[in-house]
Each structure stands twice: as C-alpha cells, then as structure tokens.
Known about the structure:
Elements: E1 5-14, E2 24-32, E3 36-40, H1 47-55, E4 62-67, E5 70-71, H2 77-87, E6 88-91, H3 103-113, H4 118-131, H5 147-158, E7 165-169, H6 177-192, E8 196-200, H7 204-209, E9 212-217, E10 220-221
Parallel strand pairs: 3-8, 3-9, 6-7, 7-8
Antiparallel strand pairs: 1-2, 1-4, 4-5, 9-10
Adenosine-5'-diphosphate (ADP) binds near residues 16 and 46.
Amino acid sequence: MGQDDLIRLDNVTKTYQAGAPPALADLSMDVAAGEVAAVMGPSGSGKSTLLNLIAGLDRPTEGTVTVAGRRIDNLSESGLARFRARHVGIIFQFFNLLEGMTVLENVALPAVIAGRKRRMAETRARDLLDLLGISDKAAAVPSVLSGGQRQRLAIARALANEPTLLLADEPTGALDSDGGAEVIELLTRLHRGGQTIVMVTHDANVAHAAGRVVRMRDGRIAEPQPGDDRVGPASAASATIGPASPAAAGAS
Ligand code: ADP
C-alpha cells in the first residue's frame, strides 16, 4: 500500500442478507492515482458490489474504504452524496443519457446541479465535447448519435465536475466492435492524462487497454494472473485529457 493510493479497501466484507454468503469477503486492495484497473470475474463474484462501495453508492458491512485520503465507509447518506458529487464520475453500459436534452445540455447538467452558473457549465461542456471529438453534435439530441458516440457523451458528462475517479460498469457492453474501439481509445487518452479509472468489464479489449486487471472470484480477489502486472500511465507525448487540476487527486 503506497502513499499515492487514491483508493484503499481494508478487510472489506459486504453481506446483503444474513445467512447468504457475503458478496465481498475480507477483501483488501488499493488503486494508485493515475492507475486504470479493469475488474473481471464471473457473474456474482462481487464486481458491481466492489464498484458501488468505491463509488460511495453503498457501504460495507465491515472494513474500511478510503478514497482520496478520506474514509467513506462511515459517512451518512448526505455525506456520501457530497462525496460522489465531488469525487466520482460514473458511466454505465446503457449510457443513461437524457433524451429530452441536447448533447451539450447533457454534459453541462452535472455542473449545473453542482451549483455552477449555466454559462460556465456550458463552456466546460463545450471543451469536453471538443476534446472527446463530438463537438459537432452539441445541438443534437443523443438519439441521433452512434453507440460509440453515445458512450463518449456519457464519459464527457461523467467528467463534467472533474472527478477524482472515473468509474465504469461494462462501458463497452452494449456496443459493437467499432463503438467499443472508440470508447477504448478515449479511455486510453484519459489514462495518459492521469485520470484514475476503475471499470468492471467482460471485454478482453478493455482489460488489455487497462494498466491492471483485478480478477475476482466468490467475493475475493483471485490469485494474481500474468496479466495482473501494473503499469503506469502511458508516457506517449500525444495530446492528453486529464483532470483539469492534477492536484485534485490529492485533495480531500
Ligand atoms: P457481479 O457484479 O460480479 O455479477 P454482484 O456484486 O452483483 O456480482 O453480486 C455479488 C453477490 O451479491 C451475488 O451473489 C448477488 O446475488 C448478491 N447481491 C448483489 N446485490 C444484491 C442486493 N442488492 N441484495 C441482495 N443480494 C445482492
């Protein structure tokens, strides 16, 4: 466990129902700032539970969860909501876009909800659409976009509040191979920019693009596999997208 750990779980157990086997069983793991981790494993092995605990969407039954230097396992519901608004961007398999709004409005919405002025929120949204290569679609409604574009839009929205962590649940699960490749290319650029990402995936291409694979089985981390080696952010000197403030990752 290093000093630059952004996420740390210590001896975490999650039991949903008394008598049922725990969804997570005495699990400890850490994720460093700037790391991209792909969580893989059979259905029911605890992947979504793990993601929910890191996202502050749920709390463990036992053990501690520390994110950005702060314990979140003992926060109240409102404390968790504030933690999520400040630190977490999340994307889902089925995008969860608002179809009654334009692309630009979808991306600006989280910042407006967080209390920013609409003009500022839309300026940041335009910058994100630009970086993500869909600025020509700003005035369109999401339904005219391709699957890959829709997920890129969802990623832009997740980045609206400059989250410390980007979390993803099967980000390519609903996409064809072209759409999946677009999303993987974007995630790779975010990785190069220093964005910390944890994603649940069954997609070997996504896992390959991640710096690290965490394999789960029966609520525990399975024995290390050859693909589990960590690598730092890619060092290529190409254009990068990262947290607007690199110091944000260390802030509490
Ligand atoms: P995965 O994402 O790997 O498919 P989950 O974390 O969804 O695994 O589930 C792990 C275990 O916890 C499973 O046995 C599942 O049935 C159980 N589980 C998950 N969510 C709930 C819940 N809300 N209530 C009761 N049991 C749950």
